[in-house]
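Data card: per-record layout.
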Amino acid sequence: MNQGYMDANVILRFLTGDPPQMAERAASLFRAVEQGELRLIVEPIVLTEVVWVLQSFYHYRPAQIAPVLREFLGQDGIEAEDKDIMLHALSLYESKNVDFADALVAARMLRRGVTQIFSFDEHFERLPGIRRLVPREWLRVDTP
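The structure for this 144-residue chain is written out next.
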């Protein structure tokens, strides 16, 4: 079977229909996926770029973005090494009001059993199972 990686711009053209000529070419690619002629691979960094563009340029909200991308990732013929992590990150992004990149980091942390993150971003405190530490606070964690 034919396979290839895809870039964020192909996904964005397909999802937004903008610009129409590129959108039609992207749609034809995804029709080939639907027909089982092609398998496409998406990387977490590509999905992160898609979310960022949809939110910043097209002004979509997480509640609009996450369901569409979950459906997209769930299609036969769309592969990702860490698809379960990306799906978990989309859920955190949508439900906890955090940036997708941070949700992706949190999902990866939880998969590895790591619960602490050093960050100045307070929104990490909204994520279940994650403990945010401000740099230098770690000195007090294990010190009596």
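Known properties of this structure: The mean pLDDT is 94. The first strand starts at residue 2 and ends at 5.

See the next section for split statistics.
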